[in-house]
Amino acid sequence: MMVSSVAQGMRQIPLDLGPVSLPGLDDFLPDGNGQLLDWLRRWPQGGDESSTGRLPSAYLWGAAGAGKTHLLRAMVPRALAMGYGVIWISGQGCQMWDADDPMAPSLALMDDCEQLDEQMQHLAFNLFIEWAAGSGGGAQGGGVSIIAAGHVPPVDLPVRDDLRTRLGWGQIFAVSALGEDGVRTVLQAEAQRRGMALADGVVSYLLSHYSRDLAFLMGLLDRLDRFALAEHRTVTVPLLKQMLALENP
Known about the structure:
The protein is α/β, with parallel strands linked by helices.
């Protein structure tokens, strides 16, 4: 049973997974997450499931803004480049990318597991049924690999019991949030990637007025970039305050 049949009848919703140039695994600062990054870089090799014929399964948990969604997104192009199909599941819905070979294995990515509704939980459970069936024979061997993420450990997820149990069957990684220096480095690197010229004090202002939720700060930086381009101005603290005033009149 392939992912396409598991997901048959499920409503696909185009999801905003970020720009095509979204940073990948190499742009994720380890900062206590070295073991997790090593596992993701070696995927689909080296999982404990190899002796059972299954493809790897893992669950990542940590606070909002720790980078879990970044890591899951980074796996989409990696899996496609290896000939895998990909299915993305979240509280927003699901989205699929077919492999060129209809018999190729698939990677299922499940984000924000605590937000999955009844329909998405049903789909996630069926994918675990296929995962448990095995068939980890490489790029031509079929089967499904699963990497999921949530804010809490599997045992604390507010989902159906049988799915909660299965989310804890594979590797479990606690994702450490970046410290202030790490967040500052990521924001500066993202600004450089975008070609943004940040005036002195912009990043310090962000860190002193907002939490270190990296997802929120990256979204704010994205809005600031577009606002600066529209205004034909350099990114400064006064420009940031002007944008925020317009967003929250």
